[in-house]
Amino acid sequence: MDIVFEGGCLCEAVRYSSSSELITTVHCCCRDCRKIGGTGHATHSVIPADSFELTGNVSEFACTADSGNRINRFFCPKCGSAIYHTRDGLKGLVVIRTSSMDDPEIARPDRVIYTSSAVSWDHLDPTLPSFEKMSNVKPGVGKDGSSRIVGIDGRHRNHSNQESLKTGPRGQT
Ligand SMILES: [Zn+2]
Ligand SMILES: [Zn+2]
Question: Any idea which ligand is nearest the CA of 117?
Fold first, then answer.
């Protein structure tokens, strides 16, 4: 299979390639992403698991998301770079850290999630659809048998005046 893009950790002990284009890219402002990334948010890109090829050893940190789903986060044991995660709710998909890609410019973030946990100084593109919590991406199978996302839902902040009045546009709840 042809390589579409590559990436890896800072020390280059861990490398990966993808034989698929990105399915979606999302900014996440949740507490866990901030803690792990050392920044105001993390940017994640989704690809089919069967297009993902990893070389080198990764360490794993598993925890339970507020959805109750298990998230397995993988990072380089040597330099600590976050590489990717998988989650129970997204079977067949791998969520890579967009920042670990060799050319992150190929990613086009399409929404912001967990704005309820966003910090006031972290400014993201205000034209993107944003969600107070998760926007539920639904994994499915395309006509050609490949993994893809068949639907996205969630509480769309821009379409809910009541919601934004209650919590403020990007306020901490
Ligand atoms: Zn490394
Ligand atoms: Zn997050």
Answer: 2
Identify the three-state secondary structure at position 2: coil
Residue scoring higher pLDDT (94 or 171): 94
Q: What is the pTM of this model?
A: 0.79
101 with 35: CB under 8 angstroms? no
pLDDT higher than threshold 50 for residue 41? yes
Cα of 18 vs centre of ligand 1, distance in Å, is 18
- 141 has pLDDT over 60: no
Q: For 150-161, what is each residue's pLDDT tens digit?
A: 455 544 444 333
pLDDT in tens, 46-77: 999 999 999 999 999 998 877 788 999 999 99
What are the residue boundaries of the structural domains of the chain, listed by start?
5-167
Ligand at minimal distance from the CA of 78 is 1
Other beta carbons within 10 Å of 55: 10
Domain 5-167 is found in CATH 3.40.630.10: no
- How many angstroms is it from 150 CA to the middle of ligand 1? 34
Radius of gyration of the chain (CA): 16
Phi, psi of 126 (to 5 degrees): -70, -10
Q: How far apart are CA 16 and CA 12, in angstroms?
A: 10
How many residues would you count in the chain? 173
